[in-house]
Amino acid sequence: MPDITLQDITRLKFGVGQPVPRNEDPILLQGQGRYTDDLDLPGQLWCVMVRSPYAHGVIKGIDIAAAKEVPGVVGVFTGADLAEYGPLKCLLPLKNRDGSPLVNIERPSLATDKVRFVGDPVAFVVAESKAAAKDGAEAVFVDIDVLPAVTEASAAAAPDAPLLYDHVPGNQVLDFHFGDAEKVAAAFASAAHVTRLSLRNNRVVVCAMEPRSAIGEYDPATGRYTLHVGSQGVFGLRAQMANDILKVPTDKVRILTGNVGGSFGMKANAYPEYTCLLHAAKVLGRPVKWTDERTGSFLSDQHGRDHEVEAELALDAEGRALAVRLTSYANMGGYLSTVAPLMGTGNFSKNIQSNYATPLIEVTTKCLVTNTTPVSAYRGAGRPEGNYFFERLLEQAAKETGRSAIELRRINHIKPEAFPFSAPSGSIYDSGDFTGVLEAALEAADWDGFAARKAESKAAGKLRGRGIGNFLECTAPPMKEQGEIRFNADGTVTIITGTLDYGQGHWTPFAQVLHQTLGVPFESIRLVQGDSDLLVAGGGTGGSKSLMASGAAIIEAAQKVIEKGRLAAAHMLEAAPADIEFTRDADGTGRFTIAGTDRSMSIMEVAARIRTANNPPPEMPDSLDVKHVFGEAPMAYPNGCHICEVEIDPDTGITQVVRYVSVNDFGVIVNPLLVEGQAHGGIVQGIGQAIYEQVAYSEEGQLLSGSYQDYALPRASDVPSFGFLSRPDPCKTNPIGAKGCGEAGCAGSLPAVMNAIVDALSDYGITHIDMPATPERVWRAIQDAQRA
């Protein structure tokens, strides 16, 4: 960061690098947060969706007559009522390997011809109360001619698979290819050893703490829509709703987001319910509210992951990687979400490299529609998967060639002297010490003491295994981002930016950056993020880029504040602007001083004096306020090494994570307390996918894991205390020096946990098991190995 010394960092109580508690925690812990469902508007009506009970079928008719007669019901709507609105569709300009564009699917907000997954909305009921709306929804009769269903991507590619769309031959929307197939084939042909693994990236339910909820309003006097909704960025959501769906200018749409109880990618884009609410509000002349229940969330919230992968690694005689190749099926679900194909295509390609100097990469992915809930981004969105695939390949290659897996990593790590490193994925890594991070993790995990711990577990009748999860992920590149700073009459300072906090805790680190850069009092800083009317730019939150984007925008805006402050202070101190210096006191207070003198004013004094100035000269600014847009910056490359130890009860198959440590390079860490919390959350989600979570469908497409009675999540008792260490190597491509951290926990935990489980099961000769390693699956693997 510019103009900041080590002394600044260590002396400022609220400066960069300090573990400052989250400003919003006292508000949230006292129940004073405002989530969407907490909001009720005058005259508000309630909406309940009518969803398909079948995975696939032709809609023969929808009878709404009985629903209209239910007491309290004021409106019943079907797809025919929404014909004026645009569809939801994939917004990625992806191409097939032959250069043709992907086969897009334009999804109406309510199905009109066919239903394509259980939970597909076909109608909605609006009533005076939620209970009346439920009664009305139950009275809607939907006549569906049921068709055969397909739920697996590979099965959807079969010649005799049911077709979901007439314009999508073979159910395939994209045949993606990256890499030089001939060079990769030559590398495999010349390899001293080739390792192959079939890997399943299991489908998961996002399970955000707060179910989706929204309220639609319409002002007939102005023709303006307002949507109160949990989101990951109001600026982008406004553009999607206005341009693609409502077909109105963006100034006719306002998106408001308060507190958000988790998203992990799922709440980033528009959903059918939002169109329904805004239409009903317009037709009925009253606000309309909808809040999903957990069963509805399981059915209709976009799911995560779901890839079937054949992974291959070619090594030379010395153990150096020559090439890595992925051949995959990616399940899109019944429709294409906004970014549905991204995870198994571009993000596989960028992240399979990890932190290894593999010269050749090839990724082939067939994206197919199935009769399942649509899939979209989920924490990491292809980044954890890429690291998981390579780490599992490397561990298996070590076993097959009789090498140390640690030494194989050391041999293949990109060395510090190679930076900037041009990866075959197209990324340019700017910094890192990957072997150094590995060595620090081995020491922190007491790697050499494992044998004694394994013996103790064996004496207790348990299997013990350990696993390494090296990772490097390519964050999303920061897009144009607003950094607005306002000096308010009450002495507070407001930051306005287009990223959005949905649980991360943006207020505190953004305030730390502003406090350190500009020297305004930390306790006076406020943050506004969730009002599209206040934004002229905003990339939202996703891809671990928020601090890089908003932090950079805040720093650049602060420099403009300083320049305005120099002009104002020059007039107030009766000096030339060139003689005014901006410095910070020992307590961090920003101050404008006449060079070589002790005459000065604090930045807050200057801001207050401007407001009350009489007859100021024309060259003096009328405030210190700045509205600035930060330009785009390259992606960053957070990396690290996780080491996990597990115990398995061979009689039950129950796996327990018993030790866990991670060493991470997140670049400059603004707030280590929050960063460690982000890492913990990501690790637990990785443990969940690795051991517990699995979306299951019947052959007919019915969701078998449709509630928490059937879908397992990790609990506090399922995880140990986490060891967390930092070994930062600052990023060189953004002014903060940060690398992002929000999704890194998943990237390291998936391979660390699964490598540990396979290591424990190796006592039985087992070399691989797919996620999730549930007790039943582990027990069966042991039984099969004993019978072999």
From TrEMBL:
**Natural source organism:** Siccirubricoccus soli
Q: Does the keyword Oxidoreductase apply?
A: yes
Where's the Aldehyde oxidase/xanthine dehydrogenase a/b hammerhead domain? Answer: 30-148
> What are the protein's UniProt keywords?
Molybdenum, Oxidoreductase
From the UniProt annotation, give the residues forming the signal peptide: none
Highest taxon above the source species = Bacteria
Q: Does the entry feature the keyword Oxidoreductase, yes or no?
A: yes
Supply the InterPro entries for this chain. Answer: Ald_Oxase/Xan_DH_a/b, Ald_Oxase/Xan_DH_a/b_sf, Ald_Oxase/xanthine_DH-like, AldOxase/xan_DH_MoCoBD1, AldOxase/xan_DH_MoCoBD2, AldOxase/xan_DH_Mopterin-bd_sf
* The name this protein goes by in its record: Xanthine dehydrogenase family protein molybdopterin-binding subunit
